[in-house]
Prior knowledge:
Elements lengths: L1 H6 L4 H33 L5 H36 L6 H25 L5 H27 L5 H29 L5
Helix pairs in contact: 2-3, 3-6, 4-5, 4-6, 5-6
Amino acid sequence: xxxxxxxxxxxxxxxxxxxxxxxxxxxxxxxxxxxxxxxxxxxxxxxxxxxxxxxxxxxxxxxxxxxxxxxxxxxxxxxxxxxxxxxxxxxxxxxxxxxxxxxxxxxxxxxxxxxxxxxxxxxxxxxxxxxxxxxxxxxxxxxxxxxxxxxxxxxxxxxxxxxxxxxxxxxxxxxxxxxxxxxxxxx
Length: 187
């Protein structure tokens, strides 16, 4: 939600405050990854059953992928900072495409949370991952056509595709969390 809010036009002070808040949460996710990883590493040194060791490995993977999601959202914020600093304005089609991608990412995050709570399985996460990839591919193709037609600048195109690509990468991290939790791979 914070990244989506950061995407909307706003004054410098509000933009910076929101950007700083995203950076703070990214640092918190880094710290949590380190602390939880350290603790699980210590636990795994004990004499454990193979099943417990496998559970710990899955938890370590989940934590690492969750931290990567935090990194990804901060990368989105940094791209939006570049957009602001370069005074780049997206076209209506770019704004709509980005809103679509954010919506898919939000659905994917909600599904991941449902899986982590034990309320869902891998099926819907896989469907959403496919939809995110298809959206990225379609927006990439539209972007290339728009640049060829000089609908907007190369700088605008680059920042837009950085955002779209980072959203897709975040979707991958989300599916990785779900796979680690369920012990399954997407089909």
